[in-house]
Amino acid sequence: MKYANSIEIALPREKVARLLADPAHLPKWLRDLVVHEPVNGVHGQLGTESRVVMQSGQRKIECTETITRREPADLHGIPEESVVHFDREIVGAGMWSVVRDRLTEAGPETALWESESEYRFNSPLMRLVGLLMPGSFRKQSQQHMQDFKAFAEQGKDVREGTN
């Protein structure tokens, strides 16, 4: 299963890239996040493996995230024409996914965040979920992007009330 999402954020691309890359901000916009901790490497750096735990209702989902691309490595002084890339592979019980995020300048003070996601399921239960509810994956990804936009532009924290 593959899908794409995008959103414009009313901040300069470099600021958006630094906010996305800062692990201190993850709980503020990544809804349902319980744990995001490096087990090998430095958070957000190429090759780093992290343990990620999400909770949806009573169900906890644990997976391993590996950073497969981060360009440029230094998020300060990014040339105007450059595209910022954050790619990661996520492996959990019954599933594998890859997410490819790109940040470009949509205007002088606006960034465009485009995200491509691909999922493969290797357990009967996850295959069934993928078949019956493919739209829920795309919807959740778009919700994360909208939550990040609200955090970046207005300082809204998903842990404070309902959005």
Layout: helices, strands, pairs:
Elements: E1 2-9, H1 13-21, H2 26-29, E2 33-40, E3 49-56, E4 59-71, E5 84-92, E6 95-107, E7 110-121, H3 124-132, H4 134-154
Antiparallel strand pairs: 1-7, 2-3, 3-4, 4-5, 5-6, 6-7
Question: What this model shows, in words?
Answer:
The protein is 26% helix and 44% strand. It contains four helices and seven strands. Strands 1-7-6-5-4-3-2 form a seven-stranded antiparallel sheet. The longest helix is centred in the last third of the chain and has 21 residues, at 134-154. The protein is globular and about 45 Å long. The relative contact order is 0.23.
Please provide a brief summary of the model.
This protein is an alpha+beta fold and 163 residues long. It has 4 helices and 7 strands; from the N terminus they run βααββββββαα.
